[in-house]
């Protein structure tokens, strides 16, 4: 057993959470409350999932419902991280565009069976990767468009379509959302031993099997995240996801 589930573990978790929030507060990062809330939510959610997983894995309808819930929470989380207005729901597109084809291919090829014990963790990893890429790509693109609004309008004045002018400004910033996944893949086995690899080893798999599963996860994540960033960038460029009303030179009366 990697970690014994006892009072000592609980005390250490509380201490680490308080330390993280304390450091954030002392450095005036403005996220100390979010850290505390995230930690408490994670504990509650994992406890509920641990209790419910027994019933979910044994029923296809419950399994599909659980996967739909995972997707819905990811969409809500990603959308609200990008914008506070009603365009947040467009986050459903990049997450689905990245995850659905990959999961479908895995099911059709038989690499992943329609069993909760396998499908839930694999789909959860991919949805989580798509969520992160969507948030980072969308936020970076929107931030860049806000900071460099004058350049966007200048491009439009020179004859570029609205979409093309926004793409020219937002694309380099949005592409940075791929860096965490790229760095993780480049350094796997040298800097870190990711969770899938360690979990397989603890479950009794051979190092070769564990390595193959981890490689599959990393490559699948890169595919999912590349699609998610591309789709969210296109949505931002087309104005489907935005933060405030945009006034461009073409909107103004002569």
Automatic annotation (TrEMBL):
Topology versus the membrane: Multi-pass membrane protein
Keyword vocabulary terms for this entry: Membrane, Transmembrane, Transmembrane helix
UniProt main location, coarse: membrane
Subcellular location: Membrane
Bilayer-crossing regions: 42-75, 87-111, 117-138, 188-206, 212-236
InterPro entries membership: UPF0014_fam
Pfam families (alphabetical): UPF0014
Protein family membership: Belongs to the UPF0014 family.
Name used for this protein in its record: ABC transporter permease
């Amino acid at each position: 057993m990697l970690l014994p589930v006892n009072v000592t573990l609980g005390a250490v978790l509380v201490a680490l959470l308080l330390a993280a929030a304390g450091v954030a507060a002392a450095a005036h990062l403005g996220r100390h409350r979010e850290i505390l809330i995230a930690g408490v939510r994670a504990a509650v959610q994992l406890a509920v999932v641990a209790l419910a997983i027994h019933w979910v894995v044994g029923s296809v309808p419950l399994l599909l419902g659980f996967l739909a819930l995972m997707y819905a929470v990811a969409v809500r989380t990603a959308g609200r991280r990008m914008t506070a207005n009603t365009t947040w729901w467009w986050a459903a597109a990049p997450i689905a565009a990245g995850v659905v084809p990959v999961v479908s291919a895995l099911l059709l090829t038989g690499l992943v069976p329609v069993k909760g014990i396998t499908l839930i963790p694999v789909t959860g990893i991919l949805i989580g990767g798509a969520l992160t890429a969507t948030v980072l790509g969308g936020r970076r693109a929107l931030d860049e468009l806000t900071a460099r609004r004058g350049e966007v309008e200048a491009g439009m004045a020179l004859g570029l379509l609205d979409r093309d002018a926004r793409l020219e400004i937002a694309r380099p910033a949005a592409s940075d959302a791929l860096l965490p996944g790229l760095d993780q893949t480049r350094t796997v086995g040298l800097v870190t031993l990711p969770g899938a690899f360690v979990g397989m080893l603890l479950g009794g798999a051979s190092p070769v099997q564990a390595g193959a599963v981890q490689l599959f996860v990393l490559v699948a994540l890169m595919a999912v995240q590349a699609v998610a960033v591309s789709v969210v960038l296109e949505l931002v460029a087309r104005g489907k996801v935005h933060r405030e009303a945009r006034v461009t030179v073409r909107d103004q009366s002569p």
